[in-house]
Input
Amino acid sequence: MTATQTPAAGMSLPLPAAAGATRPLVIAVDPSLTSLGIAGTDWAEALRPRDTGHMRLSWLRAEVYDRTRAADLVVIEGPAYRQQHQAGHHEAAGLWWMIVHDLWRRRIPYAVCPPQQRSMYATGRGNAGKGEVRDGVRRLFGVECDGPGRYDQADAVAMAALGAHWLGYPVTTVPASHARALAGVAWPAQTPAVAR
Output
């Protein structure tokens, strides 16, 4: 891409990557205290801690740190403000900031994706249910998300695919109704060097 065509400059549909180009490593995180979804564009897992309090936060932070070590871009789900009065909100917000701070400290570019945008990218609708997002992830990106944490896994895959699309390496061609989700994400101010 040229300097005026970078995703950070507002381009919603990046140019296709050059033939034979190596795909950048995009990792997405759906933060949760009980079932944290983490995924790339072709894999997913749910991290389910056994401990609580400091031990839980420490374990989740270390696991995310390890899995994002070589990432070119991390997409993390933004806070769901409607849940701010639920039990554990304060601790969940702390986990979110710990993860984001680790990324910032390691100079790994990250994007903040509102929940509606990841649903829109997977289904074409921002208010799609968890099962619909999982079905969309299976249909569009070919990633099976099953078992405990399946919805968290699917959310993370959708965000990883969204990040790859923004960098110019879409996993697949998505309809315009899905691609419009690109415009609602807080992408990093500096376009990662791997962007096309």
Observations:
- The mean pLDDT is 87.
